[in-house]
Write a structure and sequence with these properties.
Layout lengths: L1 E6 L4 E6 L8 H11 L19 E4 L2 E4 L5 H6 L19 E4 L6 E3 L2 E2 L2 H9 L19 H8 L9 H5 L12 H12 L7 H5 L15 H5 L6 H13 L6
Parallel strand pairs: 1-5
Antiparallel strand pairs: 1-2, 3-4, 3-5, 6-7
Length: 245
């Protein structure tokens, strides 16, 4: 199988012929190329268990975690599965095209600079702000409320949703799906004052209201976090359309 990999910030693409692909992931494949064919190939990884988000890349036009994606799955992907457009470089016939995730500066080969992603993320103050008047014993939370909050707690900040979001790059200062989902997560947390002030951090044209609900963020999230749902519910809260009965 031919594996075509973006090199030198996309200025060139190198092809590698790899035969041993049975039962391996894309990350295994990159290691195989680096160890057996080209030791100069550069990519980022850490946990190898889909927890750290370090190995986020673009494979055949789809943002994925390299450590979680079997080569066999990529080979079965249809063109309709793509949520971002690949580069103008053609896909190798029957092979795999591997590129850095888009919408972030490329440092080298498949390694990107996440600072633009985290810069917008930090603006929303994604930390717990404890209620100044806590209860005498413990905070109580119903099962339904707990399930709602947990939808947004599994984000690993891999920036796959950022790379797949059509709004990023078109609306300056848009925080991105991950940041907005995290903001809504803290709004729901019973340890914070549950008021509209938390949501107001992104109550602007380039905040909650900039989302066009393409749902790419949910489609690519390796942890199943639905930022689109958080954004829709935040909008309803801000417009006073929530039924609190």
């Amino acid at each position: 199988m031919i594996i075509r990999v973006a090199r030198d910030k996309g200025e060139r693409y190198d092809d590698y012929n790899v035969d041993n692909i049975n039962g391996i992931t894309i990350l295994d494949l990159l290691f195989q190329i680096q160890e057996d064919i080209d030791p100069t190939l550069t990519f980022r990884y850490s946990c190898r268990g889909a927890v750290c988000g370090s190995c986020a890349i673009l494979v055949n036009g789809i943002p994925v975690l390299a450590c979680k994606t079997p080569v066999s799955r990529v080979r079965d992907m249809e063109s309709g599965d793509r949520v971002t457009l690949p580069s103008e470089n053609e896909f190798p016939d029957g092979g795999i095209l591997v590129e850095p995730i888009p919408k972030l500066p490329v440092i080298k080969d498949l390694v990107v600079d996440w600072e633009p992603f985290f810069k917008e993320y930090r603006k929303l103050e994604p930390v717990l702000k404890i209620d100044k008047n806590p209860p005498d014993k413990e905070y109580l939370m119903g099962k339904d409320d707990k399930r709602e909050l947990e939808k947004y707690t599994n984000c690993i900040l891999c920036a796959l949703c950022w790379s797949a979001c059509p709004v990023i790059g078109n609306v300056e200062g848009y925080p991105g799906p991950a940041a907005l989902a995290k903001l809504f997560r803290f709004y729901l947390d019973p340890r914070e004052p549950n008021n509209i002030k938390r949501l107001s951090f992104a109550d602007k044209d380039n905040g909650w209201w900039a989302c066009d609900f393409h749902k790419n963020c949910k489609a690519v999230c390796p942890k199943g976090v639905p930022p689109n749902l958080a954004i829709g519910k935040a909008r309803k809260e801000l417009k006073g359309e929530v039924d609190r009965k």
